[in-house]
Queue: 2 jobs
Job 1
Amino acid sequence: MSTLKSLRALAFIIPAFAIPAAADLLTPAATKADSTIAFQSVNVTLPDSDRVFPGAGADPINNNCLACHSADMVLNQPAMTRAAWQAEVNKMIGSYKAPVAPEDVAGIVDYLVKTKGAN
Ligand code: HEC
């Protein structure tokens, strides 16, 4: 059998096995087993992570750096040199695809050096 024919055969075999499995997943657990699960309400206090970057010159960092993580997460990092903060911002943009306005990059690095800078 050619590879193409084998693939066509597989295309028919896979759904035959996949459909009963999917139907099984869609069956609510309660109808499968005669379990007695008791639901109850709980109160959970989540950490307050909606803080913005404080202080003067924080606009560029507040406008670009809060989409994926909190200000606290950034401010709890160790103090770093200007070169290290520049590399950090570059990493956010290059590796994590942070949509940072190019004209804001210098202001962000300045704020980080002023707030969390090391000599
Ligand atoms: C597109 C999402 C996104 C945006 C926007 C973003 N980051 Fe991040 N950042 C991440 C991810 C993902 C991590 C890694 C988190 C982890 O390791 O748990 C991270 C981690 C960090 C860390 C911790 C150290 C590290 O390298 O892991 C710092 C500091 C940081 N970001 C600063 C910034 C700054 C400053 C900005 C604005 C220029 C920014 N981030 C914008 C996604 C983002």
Job 2
Amino acid sequence: MNTRRTFLKKSMHGATATLGIPLLTKDTFASVEPTGVNGRYWRNWFGNERCIPNKIVRPSDLTELCQTIRRSEKIRAVGSSHSFSPLVPTPDTLLYTGRMNRVLDLNLNHRFVQVEGGMKLAELNSYLDEFGVTLPTFGGIDQQTMAGLTCTATHGVGVQWGSFSDGRGLSAIELVLANGELLKLRDTDRSHDKYLHAARVSLGALGVIHSLTFKVFEAHNLEEITRPASLEEALRPEQYLSSDHYKFYYFPFTNSTYMMFQNRTQLARSINPAKKWFENTFLAKVLIEGVFKAFSHAPFMIPDAMRLLTRFLPETRSVDRSYKIMIQAMPPKSPVMEFAFPAEKAARAIEVYREVVSELSSRTENPYYANFPIVVRFASGDVGNYLSHAQGTNPHCFIDFTAHPAIHGWEEFFAILEKRMIELGGRPHWGKIFRESPKKLYPQFDLYNQVRLELDPSEKFANRFIDSLVTSS
Ligand SMILES: Cc1cc2nc3c(=O)[nH]c(=O)nc-3n(C[C@H](O)[C@H](O)[C@H](O)COP(=O)(O)OP(=O)(O)OC[C@H]3O[C@@H](n4cnc5c(N)ncnc54)[C@H](O)[C@@H]3O)c2cc1C
């Protein structure tokens, strides 16, 4: 039987990787090393996961991919390296997928697109727009690869659709297996069901994804309206039920939120500069780089600063292409944790968050002041996969917790929040920060693992994270 301690110990990889909360050193943030594969070295976007693999391979087509996999003993694929969790690190072969980034087929009659796994979402979005079509969901940024997105059930906003791994949108997957053979999985073949259920959120452990096929829909503009509101107003179900896309920011130590609605429109493109200012300047520069950096030595001033800042939230109205308006600029490097709940639990989850914020800020020794708004997004859960953190077609809320990395104490804050969110029934995002094994939260984990062992009996595609996950209790 594995205790939590042995689980965490087993997940340690090299000097820096843990299952969840990263071992941070000062140089993590000072680092200027580029994200991803860099010579013989790899690190993730946030800088908390690194490895020096034995070998780095960069196949550029299916033949090379199959040969490479056949010849490797242990191999792990990497996309854009945007996951915070230790999904990627390996001491063995690391397979960079960025050269396999083509559209293989776009069928406008049957409304699907087949792409290679290493294609970035940004590239695919612009490509599809040229042909007047779009994916049903967008995500919050667009630098991830299509395979990387599905491996962790990355999601966007909007209760009509689930994540990129939702079986209603992801209809086929081609995987290169350990023996170098290509396995073609299609949702039109019922005998493929269990394999597709495992492969739609594969954690990179079934094989290397060569291609993915997504449904596409008519391209459109979205009108975005943003405005400040009380927490009670932001939490009303009609907000997410009556909008195509809805999310809000909640500011700790206040009762204030900033609501964002996006709805389909025939109106022409027009961008309110205050919109870009909020996400690209206010959140990134004012909060992270400015105010809270200044307060890292006087964090007790954060609650007042937060109250003051909420007075400057602008009301805006903008219209743009759907995939453009939904994508925000890359945020500054900060740790992020995320939990998914059925939407009706959003109010209780935020209440618990406020209790934790209040407990930590009011203690006499080592008080911690939450220093970043939380983001509450509403989207559908997924169908047709075993490991999505939001299951089923009902609306779910996804709550992102971010912290300023320079303000001491965020690791403890995250650890306490994680425990409380799991007690409430929340499931962590596979690609963000967590420290406890999420396995027990997935009733279908064993089904996933059976498929994994059937497709990869020698566990060629496992790494320490996968080993620890599978053996955890
Ligand atoms: C700034 C930022 C913003 C984010 N915003 C969102 C958001 O809005 N919504 C959300 O849900 N998540 C979000 N995330 C999380 C992110 O989308 C996921 O972690 C995603 O998996 C990263 O994709 P990637 O291409 O970087 O994959 P990587 O992090 O490189 O890899 C992730 C997993 O995919 C596997 N993999 C990659 N390619 C292949 C392949 N071809 N075959 C098999 N396995 C493969 C890897 O082995 C690994 O297990 C965000 C992360 C960051 C850093």
